[in-house]
């Protein structure tokens, strides 16, 4: 059983890819979002940790996480509840940073 991960902008740069399949641990029917983010930090290291979290246990307020197109993150609010969100096999997770910039006329 696996989930599909899609990475955009800075998250894709750190991962070195835009998509990957992640096999769930044997015997698990799914994982929490918190467990998933920890797996990504173990796999991609400190740079990924800096993108995903701003403080210990607080999701980066610029990080957008979508599960099958549904926005899970809310600007860093309710981190504890969001980290408990259950991710079932077959789910597609998208991770991207909201980036502002450009010139205004």
From TrEMBL:
Gene3D superfamilies tied to this protein: 3.10.20.30
Coiled coil: none
InterPro entries xrefs: Beta-grasp_dom_sf (IPR012675), Mopterin_synth/thiamin_S_b (IPR016155), ThiS/MoaD-like (IPR003749)
Top-rank taxon, per record: Bacteria
Family matches, as Pfam families: ThiS (PF02597)
UniProt name for this protein: ThiS family protein
Species of provenance: Thermanaeromonas toyohensis ToBE
